[in-house]
Write a structure and sequence with these properties.
This protein is an alpha+beta fold. The chain is 17% helix and 31% strand. It is globular and about 95 Å long.
């Protein structure tokens, strides 16, 4: 497939402000801190695990790890999963006759090729075959016999489920002729058999599950279930280390598949297995052949040559059939259906069926097929099924993250979508579009695993953007017809506050017309009390919003689409096809129909969220024959007409770029709440990003101009907040520059040189800079020619005061300081420095008394172990917190000026789990937290010391997709907070 004009989109996920807090004491004194309360005796589920483990002589940690990998300790109130798992232990009970009857009654899938041509294609995809019977489908009944309890109790009672799971593990250990050892590592074979039902035929099924169980044992786990049950599994690295579990960080070479691929065309036979190294995958190809002697029909995909520039979506499906049955369906050419990947429920095993470069027929929309990868998840047509196995989520999320990184797919829900969000390509196809993976797919958990968590933010702005984000927990259980009360992934939408559902909608799970699903983004149309309206399907759609089921997207630089000026409305399309002239130029037949709008419009005055701020070219891949023998076969037709993909209703849609305007979305995420601003020097120049810790959102790193127009590899920054403006000072090329950022608009002023418009020319080139504020005055301190100099900007009077020689005032010798930092307590300016002697010095300017003083604080805080290469200081009330890098590790000492004492050095590196040496450090204070940022291996990391609870967080990588995003290698940084 020739490369089209589509390019990878910029990643624009909402993201959390910091990593989860670790249970570590805040540094105080010489590394001491407040003791954390020890947990009391276990209750509820925790006690049930302990009792069952003791009863059946199974290691408690192993039993917990098995259950976590089955269900994350959720009971699901006795309802089955999509593959017949029940309760906390995920034991299976599948009635094959009932599954077969349900599949026989199911509506067949139509036209997954996605042509949308009712005249040419009436093909129905065969219903997947029923699951193949095996002991793995009946582990609940086996467990019930072992413990002598009715099967219904194991489905509905958590204790009996856990007892049954423990009994099964013990029985599998006995069958393996091994004693009930206390060491979890000795139970590996029993865990494999637990997953596959003890089939004992040597097959690989169950091995992946066991690997994950021992991976959980290695790192531990802790969570509170949706029913409010706290459960903790302590880490046990030793158990995993000497078990047969595979190290999933090591890539394994796949076995040869030549024997099963020889019947494929040459273009397909050489396709490699495309799968992350941390998953155990295989390749079992979908059929590619012509069927019918005269019709020319073939299946099940189109040979192409797609690259990352062609792929911008990942589509999640479920099979409504067993793993083996789905695979068999895709291996019949007459099915005319395929997906790139299929995931097995019991252990998360991944089978690739179509090479990513080829176009699988999975979405029922040719445009989405051309530009997506499809992932099928095993799921039977079970009555009452309402959840998916943890193995499906984990494998699928790992695969999705791999594909997103490989192809540049943004980690957000506008690009990682369900089949239910694929639009009908034409109006006649809309009614038959699918609604899998359905109401009970946990998008929150899935996107967390992918690494694109949606941060909470309640500052909704009319005209701004909002992300639907209901909690997938028992706290939110709207009514769904025919289903028990349980967590769901959507909000109902109403025609007015308290009125009927929009569009005569129903509460049926399959009715997607009146639901906004988790992760989807919309423009806020109106707010009335606790009701919020969004623009949806050409109208206002209202949902009850108490602040817990939606998140405002208030990052700077966000956009919306609205109708072009002068248009009462503009058409909405189900696909993005080229204009007829493009087909003629390529000598390819024009499809009939081609560009045909849906029965939908985007009216004037309404706004919708685009999938990208750069429109994509309309295109069409012409591949009418199985062997490429037709004239101009396998040609990509690319037109001049361009489109924006948008979130239009529950599904995506397209609007022509010529019909709409791209407008900024109003936001104030960086102007209120606890927030910070970062400045950094990277290999490609200076960058800036902001974070709002109150709302849990980041803006992306974005480049800012270099002072003086040229980049300086030794550039230094300092910054602070004054009012609602960020004031930045930098040293570049030996000169000092300042610039301001208006945090309401996000705009920067140009850099200006203090030589000509400030305190005047320095006597020597500057090498270091620090700033602090006292009232409405900004004090700029620099090291120039080895001397410490200070200038002051008085924003109240609108003037600069000239440079003063601090070295003369304090008697600091030439060459005395190599690093400096500054902070202010009341009317006292503190300047901290690292001397050429490797010791830390503090100079204080008391503006009330009009005098300076300075000295070596080693005697007060103790000597540092190692060479000091970085320095930061923060003042809070009467206290000053001094942080240093000593041999790359972060240490902290604190001065209490009210008490007149210093604490000794505390080991922040140990409290935060620092493992990599750092080369630079910066710090600030917001709320009750000390925010520390450091550079390790060229990346900016963040850890937070919360003094309200006495706890440090672990380090978070700010360049993750859910934070400020990737940036070139960083060498220096500064931070300011408020």
């Amino acid at each position: 497939m020739p490369q089209p004009t589509r390019k990878p989109f910029t990643r624009l996920p909402l993201r959390t402000a910091a990593a989860s807090a670790a249970a570590l004491a805040l540094v105080a004194g010489a590394g001491s801190g407040p003791a954390l309360a020890q947990p009391g005796a276990p209750t509820g589920l925790q006690a049930q695990f302990a009792a069952a483990a003791k009863e059946f002589k199974v290691p408690e940690s192993l039993l917990l790890a098995v259950a976590y990998q089955q269900t994350r300790w959720e009971s699901h109130q006795g309802r089955p999963s999509t593959t017949g798992n029940y309760n906390v232990m995920g034991l299976t009970q599948v009635d094959l006759a009932a599954v077969a009857a349900a599949q026989a009654a199911a509506q067949p899938e139509v036209d997954l090729r996605g042509d949308g041509d009712p005249k040419a294609r009436k093909h129905a995809v065969p219903v997947p075959e029923a699951p193949v019977d095996s002991p793995a489908l009946h582990t609940l009944d086996a467990a019930a016999k072992l413990i002598g309890r009715p099967a219904a109790e194991l489905r509905e009672d958590t204790l009996q489920s856990i007892r049954g799971g423990a009994a099964l593990l013990a029985e599998q250990q006995r069958r393996g002729k091994k004693p009930p050892a206390a060491d979890p590592a000795a139970w590996f074979g029993a865990v494999v058999a637990f997953s596959n039902g003890g089939a004992g035929d040597g097959r690989a099924e169950g091995r992946e599950f066991a690997d994950r169980v021992y991976g959980t044992l290695k790192v531990g786990a802790a969570r509170t279930t949706s029913e409010g049950q706290p459960v903790v599994l302590a880490a046990d690295p030793a158990a995993a280390a000497h078990s047969p579990a595979v190290d999933r960080g090591v890539e394994r070479q796949p076995a040869s598949r030549a024997a099963v691929r020889t019947a494929l065309p040459a273009a397909a036979a050489a396709d490699p297995l495309e799968c992350p190294a941390t998953l155990d995958c295989d390749f079992n190809p979908a059929a590619y052949a012509q069927y019918g002697a005269t019709t020319g029909d073939f299946g099940n995909y189109s040979i192409a040559a797609r690259t990352g520039a062609d792929i911008d979506h990942i589509v999640v499906h479920d099979t409504e059939g067993g793993y083996a049955g789905a695979l068999a369906t895709f291996q019949k050419a007459s099915s005319e259906a395929s997906a790139h990947y299929l995931i097995r429920s019991s252990d998360g095993h991944v089978t690739q069926m179509v090479a990513d470069k080829n176009i699988a027929w999975h979405a029922g929309n040719k445009t989405l097929n051309m530009h997506s990868v499809g992932i099928e998840h095993e799921g039977f047509a079970l009555s009452g099924a309402s959840w998916y196995s943890e193995q499906l989520y984990q494998s699928s999320a790992t695969l999705t993250r791999y594909l997103a990184d490989r192809f540049g797919v943004p980690l957000d829900r506008r690009h990682i979508i369900g089949h239910d969000e694929v639009p009908g390509p034409t109006q006649s196809a809309v009614a038959g579009m699918h609604w899998d993976p359905g109401t009970f797919w946990d998008w929150n958990h899935y996107m967390d695993l992918v690494g694109a968590h949606v941060g909470a933010d309640r500052n909704y702005v009319v005209g701004g953007r909002v992300v639907i984000n209901p909690p997938f927990s028992n706290a939110y259980r709207p009514v769904v017809n025919g289903a028990a009360s349980q967590p769901v992934n959507f909000v109902y939408l109403y025609a007015s506050p308290g009125g009927p559902l929009i569009g005569n909608g129903t509460q049926n799970a399959s009715d997607w017309t009146d639901k906004a699903v988790a992760g989807s983004s919309y423009a806020v149309a109106d707010i009335q009390g606790q009701w919020t309206a969004i623009w949806f399907n050409g109208q206002k759609a209202w949902f009850w919003n108490d602040g817990s089921i939606a998140a405002a997207d208030n990052r700077k630089g966000q956009f919306l689409l609205t109708a072009r000026a002068g248009a009462a409305s503009v058409p909405v399309y189900g696909r993005s096809y080229p204009e007829p002239e493009a087909y003629t130029a390529a000598d390819v037949p024009v499809p009939d129909p081609n560009i045909t709008p849906l029965n939908a419009t985007l009216p004037a005055g309404q706004s919708y969220v685009p999938g990208t701020t750069t429109p994509v070219a309309g295109d069409f891949y012409y591949a009418p024959t199985v062997d490429g023998s037709a004239a101009h076969d396998r040609t990509l037709v690319t037109g001049g007409r361009t489109y924006y993909p948008i979130q239009y209703n529950h599904r995506l849609a397209y609007v022509a770029a010529e019909d709409v305007r791209l407008v900024p979305a109003p936001t104030d995420a960086l102007s209120t709440g606890e927030r910070v601003q970062l400045l950094a020097r990277t290999a490609s120049g200076p960058v800036n990003a902001g974070a709002n810790f109150t709302r849990g959102v980041w803006e992306f790193y974005h480049p800012i101009p270099a002072p003086g127009g040229t980049s300086d590899p030794n550039q230094r920054f300092a910054e602070l907040y004054l009012g609602n403006r960020l004031h930045a000072v930098t040293v570049a090329g030996g000169r000092v520059y300042t610039a301001d950022r208006d945090l309401d608009s996000g705009e920067w002023t140009p850099w200006y040189n203090l030589d000509t418009s400030g305190p005047g020319t320095l006597p020597a080139p500057a090498t270091e800079v620090a700033v602090a504020a006292i009232g409405n005055r900004m004090h700029v301190v620099v090291v120039a020619g080895g001397r410490l100099l200070e200038a002051t900007a008085d924003y109240g009077a609108g003037r600069w005061y000239p440079w003063g020689d601090v070295s003369s005032a304090i008697g600091l010798p030439t060459g005395g300081l190599t690093r400096i930092a500054a902070a202010a307590n009341g009317n006292v300016l503190h300047v901290d420095g690292v001397g050429t002697d490797g010791r830390v010095h503090v100079a204080d300017a008391d503006y009330d008394r009009g005098r300076w003083a300075w000295g070596d604080i080693t005697g007060a805080v103790g000597a540092l172990p190692g060479t000091v290469t970085g320095l930061a200081t923060v003042s809070v009330g009467s206290k000053q917190h001094l942080l240093v890098l000593a041999d790359g590790r972060v240490r902290q000492a604190s001065a209490d000026y009210a008490a007149g004492v210093w604490s000794g050095w505390g080991d922040v590196a140990g409290a935060t789990g620092q493992t990599t040496p750092m080369s630079a450090i910066a710090a600030t204070w917001t709320g009750s937290s000390l925010r520390v940022f450091g550079v390790a291996d060229g990346r900016i990391l963040n850890a937070n010391g919360d003094y309200a609870v006495g706890r440090w967080s672990r380090w978070m990588d700010t360049e993750d997709a859910f934070a400020a995003g990737p940036v070139d290698r960083v060498a220096a940084l500064a931070v300011a907070g408020v």
